[in-house]
């Protein structure tokens, strides 16, 4: 039988919310996978539908239009999305990342202006960190923001930006002091209807085919000085403060994706015959799946521990790096074994296991590569 559904202690009181999330994912995500893969984006209406049922800004306080929940609500949604097989909807960037930058660092006036638009789906949100010449090295960004009176003038380019093709608002990492290294980085909010903002290609990726990952360009884009998050030079510190949640989100989707892949493979191997008997009945199949199931249970236990710590405000940089490193590395190994057990059909894109294989590969890269995670961890030893 398939692995049991998660019964994590942090989610014990969220049964009704899980049902809402599961129902939404099955109704609004599952039927559209092939079309979204072809068009390289979800439908714009998906965001307003999600807003209407209360799945956007769910861990943002109600006074700003949010759901008033916690990261536990976020995790349930991301689990159900991953278990549905969808990787197109960039809700984790919108909900779990951008909304929290605005909540923690925007002025009270701007929070009341911006966050309700994220909660309703009127705005789709993105964050612009990565540049063509910089990957995980956020100190090396070249995008420049120059203060002119009560405005900032922004010039530069960003790439690999999730939700970038559809975003109405982008939190942009800029250099306000190009000679100050990390201390010269600031975060500035850019509404995408401003003159000088333009989008480049929606990128053609190996996986996450339905997610609108785009290039963004800023040519003398003027924004009010009030769009600065916090103070000048605080951007790098702000990113470091928010990265643990981002890395935890990646771990949540990795574990849920691993669990879903194992379920698919158990079902497939028990139904597929070779040499007159089910593929599952071969010792290699049973042993590979026994190893995979064990990996998933261990990863789930570690993930649950980290979620509990995060809900208490205790998840540190080291812990977030460890859980991202461990879960994404193990998920990639497990899903690769699951593809092998599908044989030739595991290489066919119409099979969910093939899509899971390509979609999960990026988990070892974005949010900080596995190599960066090891560097982060080693600094704390």
From TrEMBL:
Keywords, alphabetical: FAD, Flavoprotein, Oxidoreductase
Domain Acyl-CoA dehydrogenase/oxidase N-terminal, residue spans: 16-122
Top-rank lineage group of the source organism: Bacteria
InterPro entries: Acyl-CoA_DH_CS, Acyl-CoA_Oxase/DH_mid-dom, Acyl-CoA_Oxase/DH_mid-dom_sf, AcylCo_DH-like_C, AcylCo_DH/oxidase_C, AcylCoA_DH/ox_N, AcylCoA_DH/ox_N_sf, AcylCoA_DH/oxidase_NM_dom_sf
Pfam families reported for this sequence: Acyl-CoA_dh_1 (PF00441), Acyl-CoA_dh_M (PF02770), Acyl-CoA_dh_N (PF02771)
Record Gene3D superfamilies: Acyl-CoA dehydrogenase/oxidase, N-terminal domain, Butyryl-CoA Dehydrogenase, subunit A, domain 2, Butyryl-CoA Dehydrogenase, subunit A, domain 3
Domain Acyl-CoA dehydrogenase/oxidase C-terminal: from-to ranges: 233-380
Family: Belongs to the acyl-CoA dehydrogenase family.
Name recorded for this polypeptide: Acyl-CoA dehydrogenase
